[in-house]
Known about the structure:
- By secondary structure, the chain is an alpha/beta fold.
- About 50% of the residues lie in helices and about 10% in strands.
- It folds into three domains: about 5-260, 2-enoyl-CoA Hydratase, Chain A, domain 1 (Alpha-Beta Complex), CATH 3.90.226; about 295-470, 3-Layer(aba) Sandwich (Rossmann fold), CATH 3.40.50.720; about 480-695, Orthogonal Bundle (N-(1-d-carboxylethyl)-l-norvaline Dehydrogenase, domain 2).
- The strands form four sheets. Strands 12-11-10-13-14-15-16-17 form an eight-stranded mixed beta sheet, sandwiched between helices. Strands 1-2-3-4-6-9 form a six-stranded mixed beta sheet, sandwiched between helices.
- Helix 15 links the parallel strand 14 (about 400-405) and strand 15 (about 425-430).
- Helix 10 (about 260-275) packs across helix 24 and helix 17 packs antiparallel against helix 23.
- In the N-terminal section; belongs to the enoyl-CoA hydratase/isomerase family. Belongs to the enoyl-CoA hydratase/isomerase family.
Amino acid sequence: MPVKTHIEDGVGIIVFSNPPLNPISASAGIPQAIEAALRTFDADPAIKAIVLAAEGRMFSAGADIAEFDKDPEAIAGPARRLDDVLDGLKKPVVSAIQGGALGGGLELALATDYRIATADAKVGLPEVTLGLIPGAGGTQRLPCLTGAAQAVQLITTGKVISAAEAHRIGLLDALAGDDVRAEAVAFARTVASDGRRRSRDQEISTEGGPEAIAEARGKAPRGAPGDAVRGALDAIEAVIVQGFDGGLKAEYGIFDRLLISEPARGLRHAFLAERAVARVPGLDPALKVDPVRAVAIIGSGTMGTGIALAVAQAGLPVTVIDANAAALERSRSSVESTISRAVERGRMSEAAGQAQRAFIGFSLDMEAVRGADFVIEAVFEDISVKQQVFEALDRLADAGAVIASNTSTLDVDRIAAFTNRPQSVVGTHFFSPANIMRLLEVVQGAKTASSTLARAMTFAKQIRKVGVVSGVCDGFIGNRMFEEYLRQAYFLLEEGALPQQVDAAMEAWGMAMGPLRTMDLAGQDIGWSIRKRRAVEQPDRPYSCIPDLICEMGRYGQKTGAGYYLYTRGGKPEVDPAIDALVIEESRRLGITRRPISDEEIVERCVYALVNEGARILEDRIAARPLDIDTVWVCGYGFPRFRGGPMFYADRVGLPHVLSRIEDFAGAYQGWAWTPADLLRRAAEAGTGFAALNGDVA
């Protein structure tokens, strides 16, 4: 049963259960069952007050996001009717909150008369992060309790706050100890004769509200990504101007409209996909592995230092090892400056900073790998250098230790063959800066043991990364696709576009940074090195000469002050006429008559190149599911989260349209790069989408 009830000395207690996070799911019958129990208790003259509680560690994480593609009425209707019933009760209701009340879970608590929570509980209305607004009274009831200005800040940011903060601003009525249910019962007895305190009946404090609303409107992202913020502000304004009933009607209409919007669909997919990637197809979910307890990192460069910071931030001891004393000292200095800046800017306390410092050790001796159960190689991206490191690790690393390579493109199977324990070798491709970027590609070699793979995925979770499993190929999932994305960007330059137009078009579409600015940030020399290797290995796949010409000028991007752009004022890119001239001259050398290129063509060519290569990656079984590809690109490459990922976006556009445009491009300049993937063609002709290959995302 989703709801159990009992009575304690005149207090009716309702306990709902929908493990593990107790979503207020209509399909599970939660709001309907609570409503029935409330009506029964309200009709019983022996009951003076009611307590609403939940089983498990959390009151409720909100609505069930997996249900959000249904009709808005089916999703929100039962919860809204439950709130109406709460408003009409004759007896006070107290919510007993443990763990957390988020989204629809907090809305339910807001509809009760009183709220009491454990001191460690978290509360919030994070709907805007999913392209929505609270849809069961949250935008109306919260301002009644906290005032308009505070409600604006919480709802438009989706911020989750502590119980202490919620109590301070009036959202909670009391804080409890460990037995919140018992304290809620005692609280209910006390207030039983005090009269009702419905949130909707309390006068809203508008002090600072108009200013907060105006400021939030100014900060809202332009276009569709900001629709949820603007919708929330409209709903809050409605309760101030029209009163509770008028505001509630406005909220319902805005929520229902946003629920079926494309940005909300994309954000929901990204949210669910990010959680689904942890369930690796073919890996037994019952397989238990020990968590990582100590880490060693070979290499003290930018990546090694960043990985060490990420590990320390998660509270794990880590040793950075490098035979170069000067390099090791630079790493130590970088760690210190990063932690000191975070403390100075208030991002962490001095005590937390000291704890992080204590977790990171440095050594010149490779013998320091002993005792580590997870060893990460993070040396220069050269196979001969990797060989030296892995042969040494094979001798020195503890038996049973995972030996991981941070390679971004090299063959993990070849690297594993440098050891006598290939079953213990896995790829862990971090993204720079490793202490900030959330993605971790976990590369499964041909001989990687299931336990090694499971341990690597557990490690990703321990250090708060989103681990996505990839097979072995040049570039794995992300960089293999990025190569085709860049290829089109360079060909667009040869045909008629200029760097600033390509970047501006992609950024206006939603990419965090355009492709050419991205390479300036990453370092043009890194791509140059990879192109030199691939020119030998793949001579039949030509590249544009433009990025090589830029590198030959010593322009490696931001670190040298010049790449496609000049960086002379605080790292901001400035258009350089010399690069425009270089691009135009290269078109002349190639005999190309430059033509006007629309922003629409730029977007289609760059994005559909990703989609086509993504389909090939699925064919080659490098990625298990389209959602794995989407998560890589959303979490690691700045793909707009509100578009869900390249494969999800292709489904929304329609695969027949994508195929048609690819066939158009195949008949134009450098058409060899546009051979449609067989999987894409089959899916388009069959009228199915990539989503059919995802299985159960929820």
